[in-house]
Amino acid sequence: MPLNICHVTETFLPKLGGLQIVVDQLAQELARRGHRVTVACPDYGDLKGPAPGPGYQVERCFGSTVPSFGFGVLAWRRLLARERFDVIHAHNAWPGGTLGLMGRAVGAATLVTSHGRDILVDRSIGYGSRLNPVVSALIRWTLARTQVHTVVSDSMVGAAQAAGSETDKIKVVPNFLTSSVSIQPSPKRQPYLLMVGRLHAVKAVDLALAAFKETRADFPQMRLKIVGHGGERHKLQALAGRLAIEDSVDWLGPVVGEEKEGLIREATALLLTSHVEAFCLSALEAMALGTPVIAPDRRPFTDIIGDRNGLFIRPDEPKTLVPALKRLTKPDYADELGRRGLEVAAGFTRAAAVDEYENIYYRLVAQGNK
Fold first, then answer.
1. In this predicted model, what pLDDT tens digit does every residue of 27-57 receive, in sequence order?
2. How far apart are CA 344 and CA 309, in angstroms?
3. What's the rounded Cα separation, in Å, for the pair 275 and 122?
């Protein structure tokens, strides 16, 4: 039975990020399966970036600033009244989940998927919506009333409970690979480490720069290429200057599509140093292209990376990057890690994730708006 499904999110394409791509691909796959799908999201004006995919409709209800987003609630109410959705799937408990609950008035079933920022907290860098007491209360209120709360990794379950979600409402639906798994042999690897992500404190690029400095004596030809944009770029560039490594660091800005895939495929390794991650799609992307991953030895990284398909470091101990790189220089070792990574990545398919969400939708619709 086809359903009328709405994804509501406070961020979407053409603004670029993992959450935006995941929502776009969920919407495309659900539409391909015959459902009527709408994404309710902000309007970014003339912002340049990837366009939403085919098969579903996009309703730009909200503005991109806090005041204009608030005025968008009126457009959101009109959309709810017009469409009479069967299911509202909100992405992040605040503000999407709180807005999604308005759909209960027109008989829609509701679920919230937490992608990280809404329920994960790191006080040391001021990260997480729950650090704001008012927003924390709204998240708790929302999670108490939504019918199902999904999280994208096992490591988020504790945070979901701490945020106010009842254990029997929580379901883990892992994030999925947003690109295809490579079946091509790896090309000759180039001497560079690659980072992919926002230039934000949560990604701990400062720790990566400090670790990269420690490699200079043993790997003078190695470069660090950084893909992404964000408010910390100038601060990080200044840090690279103070560390005297600016000539070995390339700031590439946003890169998408085949160009990004090529950068990942040819890298010596993908380097991750994040303080907090919900799932880490970039690690999965690298494994899908046969590229080794160097990551912190903690969850959620250890949920998909192990000694047989990756390497671990302690980002707060910069010198730990040197022995990891030395291991990668052993004959055939990097290619072996890449092959094992491909096997892991092949298990995180979009179809499997959508199967899980579809089952949740049908169950909620069958039990009614309770």
1. 999 999 999 999 999 999 989 889 999 999 9
2. 8
3. 8
